[in-house]
């Protein structure tokens, strides 16, 4: 049962970890490409034409060379490329790019996606826990069913009926499987033990009979000598 649970934990744990890694990879890859494309559009189209960036309400643009889009201090430490920032009440995607000494940032609110991602991770965690519990219950049931005939055979072997001269065979109560073969082995061993005991009893009886007459003669001779 322990081996079955450990195997299930290993497989389900690897699967759960794979789901988390894939989600993280796809999230970073797709969002990074999307934000890179949006930032290029802002730099090469909107700003070049002198119009404000055309972004949705969840996305903000910042530039180090423009007072209108000054970079907040909390975003100054982010390196180039994609980054993720998670606070107590807000989660953000940050994409930074440096061109000709000027630094540009695109910040996207991802609180809704973070909520869905956390829900997915909770589902994966719950699935992992339920798989372990299910493996434990199934392993316990299977082990009890597997060990039940072995326990019954052990009780039959220790029963007083096996001490009788002609005990009932054990193998007739079991199918021709591993337990049945074990029962046949017990039957064969008990049969050999009984034959051995019978030979010992016959030998003892013969020796007693053969020694009785010489012992009687010796006892009579000793009585005569004593007189």
Task: Please give a quick description of this structure.
With 227 residues, the chain is α+β, with helices and mostly antiparallel strands. The protein has three helices and four strands.
Explain what you see:
By secondary structure, the protein is α+β, with helices and mostly antiparallel strands. It has 3 helices and 4 strands, in the order H-E-E-E-E-H-H.
Strand content: 5-15%
Total E-strand runs: 4
- What Rg, in angstroms, do the CA atoms define? 43 Å
**What ranges have pLDDT less than 50 throughout 5 or more consecutive residues?**
none
Shape: rod-shaped
Elements, N to C (H/E): HEEEEHH
Mean of residue pLDDT?
83
Task: From the structure above, extract its key features.
four-stranded antiparallel sheet; 63% helix
Topology:
Blueprint: H1 2-46, E1 59-63, E2 81-86, E3 91-99, E4 102-109, H2 111-158, H3 178-226
Antiparallel strand pairs: 1-4, 2-3, 3-4
